[in-house]
Amino acid sequence: MHQEISRLEIPTVKRSFDLDDTIIAIDVAIQGPSGSGDYRFALDTGATQTTIALPVLRLIGCNDLNKIGDAEVVTGSGVETFPIFLLPAVEALDLTRSAFAVMGMSFPEKASFAGVLGKDFLRGKVLTIDFRVGTIELQ
User: Fold this and answer.
1) Which domain CATH number covers 79?
2) Is residue 134 part of a domain?
């Protein structure tokens, strides 16, 4: 008897981005110890860890008393140390990461984003970026 193999449906989220923007902007909802908010992040597949601007982290209740550690990062100016915080939830592209560690960092004043969505958030997923039409797809 012939057995039919069914193909599993993989949930896919597709979003557009502005090809003329300097970043691939992603809407991100973050929940902190005493607050939450929706922010614009830059998608950065080269960033090891998701990073959020320190003023934003302070707004949602992160401070020196609730940081879980520090990370040493090699930058263009040398090795710098940045705080790590454990957030109850980070949501983007219909994906929620719970108990998610993020790094706090100061961004330039003219930065058009509040954070960087890194590889750690995307781990275990398939991300397709189409620069011809300005879409991202996450499976």
Assistant:
1) 2.40.70.10
2) no
Q: CA-CA distance, 107 to 92, in Å (whole number)?
A: 20
Q: What's this model's pTM, rounded to 2 decimal places? A: 0.89
What single string gives the DSSP state of each residue in 63-131?
A: -TTSEEEEEEEEETTEEEEEEEEEEEEEEETTEEEEEEEEEEE---TT-S-SEEE-HHHHTTS-EEEET
Within a domain: 69: yes
Q: How many domains does the chain have?
A: 1
Q: Residue 87: what are its φ and ψ, rounded to 5°?
A: -95, 145
Encode pLDDT of 29-41 as tens digits: 999 999 999 999 9
Which contiguous run of DSSP H or E holds residue 58?
Answer: helix 54-59
Residue 50 domain boundaries: 23-124
Distance in angstroms (rounded) separating the CA atoms of residues 49 and 120: 6
